[in-house]
Task: structure prediction
Amino acid sequence: MPVLHFRAIYLVLMMVAIPSIAELPSSGTNNDEAVQRIVSGIISYTRWPSLSAAPRICIFSSSRLAKLVNDNITPLSYTPVIVENSEQALASQCDGIYFGKERPEEQAKLIEAYQPHPLLLIAEQNTQCLIGSSFCLNINVTPVKFAVNLDSLSRSGVRVNPDVLMLARNNNHD
Result:
């Protein structure tokens, strides 16, 4: 357990550092870096019931993260799979889905098609975070913030470290 505790502390410190970029414009590189750190942090603190390799995360091409992953030279803790639509996402059999401009209703429809497969669900354009994804990033503010839909997360089949959930609670946008 000491390693898990250290990793939780590291994530907290990493997330606390994000407010230091508050004076930067939301479209800047630092906000992009914040998105990458938050997503990587959430993924690294997520556990799937029977996953033995790095999780495959379907990333919709409509998202900011898709461009960041393509431009990224830093090693990732997950395997990104860029998809154009829901059909490609279903065919890719990913362990997580990162939505871009897909509406929450579209997210919910794809999530339903994936059931009962355990899925980590993250979205950029779901500011209400009431339906669809479990984690909802608000990338249009500096610092980048995120919220958690606990109902969606409880049905997702994955387990997320409670420290991440507390960060979302303290970091809730609106």
